[in-house]
Amino acid sequence: MLYSKGTQTVQQISELLSIPSGSITYVINKLEKKGLVERKQNPEDKRAFNVILTEQGKELFDEIFPKHAEMISRSFSVISDEEKLQLIDLLKKIGFGIQNMQEE
User: Fold this and answer.
1) DSSP 3-state assignment of 19?
2) pLDDT band at 42 (very low <50, low <70, confident <90, very high)
3) 62: buried, middle or exposed (CB in 10 Å: 19+, 13-18, 0-12)?
4) d(Cα 21, Cα 10) in Å, to the nearest integer?
5) Are 38 and 45 in contact (CB under 8 A)?
6) Per DSSP, what are the bridge partners of residue 53?
7) pTM for this one?
8) Are 14 and 24 a contacting pair, CB within 8 Å?
9) What are the two backbone dihedrals, phi and then psi, of residue 26, each rounded to the nearest 5 degrees?
C-alpha cells in the first residue's frame, strides 16, 4: 500500500485494509525494526504518525513485486477474459456493498 499510494497514517492504513489499528501498529513495529518503514509525526495532526516506506523497503518491494505479479497472472490464466470481467464486476459489487455497510 505504501509502495503504490505513498505515505499513509496508521489510521488510513487501518481503514483501507479493514484491519484494527492495533494490528497495523504491530506490523509497522516489525517492519520498522527491519528498516523497511519509518514513522514520522504528521505535521497536520500532531497526534497522528505518517508511515513511510524507506529506501530499503522500496528496493525490497522492487525485487518482490514482479514475482508476485507473475504468480497472480499465472493463477488467473486458467479463466477466460469473459470470466475475468465477470470476476471484476462481482468484486466491485462486493466492495461497494462493504463501503455502504461502513457508511451506515
Assistant:
1) coil
2) confident
3) exposed
4) 7
5) no
6) 37
7) 0.70
8) yes
9) -60, -50
Distance CA 61, CA 11 (A): 22
Tens digits of residue pLDDT in 4-40 = 889 999 888 988 888 888 899 999 999 999 999 999 9
Q: How far apart are CA 76 and CA 86, in angstroms?
A: 13
Whats the size of the chain, residue-wise?
A: 104
* Chain center to CA of 31: 14
Helix (H), strand (E) counts: the chain: 5, 3
Q: Classify residue 2 by its DSSP letter.
A: H
What is the C-alpha to C-alpha distance for residues 62 and 50, in angstroms, rounded to an integer? 21
